[in-house]
TrEMBL record:
GO function terms (MF aspect): DNA-binding transcription factor activity
InterPro entries cross-referenced by the UniProt entry: ATPase_NBD, HTH_MarR-typ, ROK, ROK_cs, WH-like_DNA-bd_sf, WH_DNA-bd_sf
Stated name of the protein: ROK family protein
Organism: Kineococcus radiotolerans (strain ATCC BAA-149 / DSM 14245 / SRS30216)
UniProt similarity note: Belongs to the ROK (NagC/XylR) family.
Domain HTH marR-type: 14-58
UniProt xrefs under Pfam families: MarR_2, ROK
Amino acid sequence: MRRGTNLPWVGDYNQAVVLDGIRRHPGTSRTELAAATGLTLQTVSNIVRRLLERGLVQEGVALLRDGAGRGAGKPRTALSVRPGAALAVGVQFEREHVDAVLLDLSGVVVGVDREPLPDPLAPVELVVAHAAGLVRRLVGAGGADEGAVRGVGVAVPGPLDFTGPVRSSAINLPGWRGVAIADLLAAATGLPVLVENDATAAAVGDLWRSPRTGRSFLYVHVGAGIGGGVVLRDEVLRGDSGNAGEIGHVVVDPAGPRCPCGSRGCLEAVAAPAAVVRRYVERVGSRTARAAGLRLAGRTVLDDHDLLGARAGAGDREAARVLDAAADDVARVVLGVVNVLDVSEVVLGGAGLRRSGERVRAALAARLGTAMTREVHPVAVRLGEAGEQAGALGAAGAVLHEALSSTWAGVHAPVRQVVISPVAPVH
Ligand SMILES: [Zn+2]
C-alpha cells in the first residue's frame, strides 16, 4: 500500500489522488474520476466538494456529450484545478547564476527570472541573499497572491546530505562543503524550503508536467556538472541517501584527468562543459581560443561552452571534434544506465545543453540502437521542454507534488525530512 501525504492543506490520501487526477486531466468529470481512481462516485463527490470549498478546484462549463454511448445528451460539469490556488518557487544554483521559476498548480510557469552570482568563491551567505532577493522579486512581479506560495524548492548539484538539516557539498561549487542550504534560504525568505538534487528535480519536473502515467525514464542533466535523475514506473529512484543517479561519476577513461570526487576520468571530468572547453584550448592553444571569443574564466565556462556549440555549427572542426567526443562519452554511459534500468525514455536538459543539446541527442540516439531492449521496446531520446530551467521547474513541482501526488510514494520519506517550515502552513 502506498503512503499518502499528511500535509494539512491537502488532507488524506484519497483527496490527493482525486486532486492529482483533476490536475493531470483538466475538464474531467466526477464520473470519470470515480472510474479512473476506483473510488465510489459518492466518495469522489465528497472530496470534490471539499476541494471546491478550499478553492483548489473549480467547476467549468457544462459540456455536452457527443451523442454516442450512455449518458448521451446529458450535460456534465468539467473540473479543473484553480491555477493560482497554489504556487511554488523553484530555484536552481549554477556556478554563474541562480535561476528561479514560479509554477502554478496547473503546472504552468507563470514567471522566470535570473540573478547573476557575484563570484563562484563568494561566501554562501551572500549567494543565498541573492537567491532570496530573486525569490521575492519573482513572487512580487507575478502579482501572485503571496499567501498562495507554498514554498521554495531548491535544485542543487549533489551530493546532498538529507540526514539532518539538508547539507549540500556540491563539488562543482567551491565553498559549498556542508552548507545547510535549506536552513539558510528558509531564514532568508520566510518560506518553507525543500531541497532536491538538480538532476532528480529535473526528472520530477518532467514527470509532474506529463499527462502520461507509468513512465520509466532517465533524465540527463548537464549543468556545470553531469547528473542523472531516475524514474521507474512513475516512482523517483532515490537510493539510500537521496543521491541516486550520479552518472557523472562513472569512469569513462581510467587514465583521464583527476575528478574532484577522487577518481580519474569520470564522465564529468571528461565531458562536462569545463572539460570540453579545456580540451578545445589544449587542441588549439589559448591564444587561438581567445581570438575565437572564449573568455576562459572559471565563471564563463557555460558561455564559452555555448560559443563552442555555435562555432561547431559554423564549421569550426576542432570545436565540433571536442563536442562530439563529449557527446559520445555521455551516450556510452547513458547506454549502460539504460541497459541496467530498462527505461524506455531518455530526457536531456540543463544549461550545458543550450547550444549542443541536439548534438548529444543525436549521439544518444545512435548509441541506443544497441540497447539490450531494442527489440522489446524502443528507447526514445528527446530534449526536455523545460530546457535549462528544468531543475528549477522540477524543484517547484516537487513542492506542489509533495502534497498533491498519489503516484510519488518513493519521495515522501526523504522529502519530509527536508521540508523546513519557519511559518505555519497556509490553509
Ligand atoms: Zn568523479
